[in-house]
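In response to the reviewer comment on reproducibility (Comment 2.3), we provide here a single inverse folding case reported in full, input and output, so that an independent group could reproduce the run without further information from us. The structure tokens appear first.
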């Protein structure tokens, strides 16, 4: 697929291995996935697959559903928006962010400020300096 091409934009997405494509195609050719919000065999398969994936993610981070939830979003922007909108901001909150950051992170500023949080922009040098002070 990438003959004669060098792909370096792994920040937004990275390319998948041939083995991943083959496994995915085999899964789609073998199973029928349905809307997880309806009642049918294909819907149950979708729900079970999502639940298994959530469990594997929690297991990877050595935690459980009693302590954390895994929420799937459409991407970084959706995840950060969900975080910003659900965080219990108040006038004692501080939202700190790196000067050089993803635009979706910068969007959190508006939500936090509206709820009374203090907004602090820091540089990488300030973060390194602060972390060195902690020993």
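Designed residues, in position order:
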């Amino acid at each position: 697929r990438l003959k004669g091409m060098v792909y370096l934009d792994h920040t937004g997405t990275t390319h998948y291995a041939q083995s991943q494509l083959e496994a995915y195609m085999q899964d789609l050719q073998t199973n029928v996935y349905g809307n997880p919000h309806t009642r049918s065999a294909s819907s149950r398969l979708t729900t079970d697959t999502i639940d298994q994936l959530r469990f594997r993610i929690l297991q990877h981070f050595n935690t459980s559903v009693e302590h954390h939830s895994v929420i799937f979003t459409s991407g970084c922007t959706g995840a950060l928006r969900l975080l910003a909108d659900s965080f219990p901001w108040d006038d004692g909150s501080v939202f700190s962010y790196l000067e050089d950051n993803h635009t979706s992170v910068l969007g959190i500023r508006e939500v936090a400020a509206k709820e009374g949080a203090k907004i602090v922009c820091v540089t990488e040098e300030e973060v390194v300096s602060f972390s060195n002070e902690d020993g």
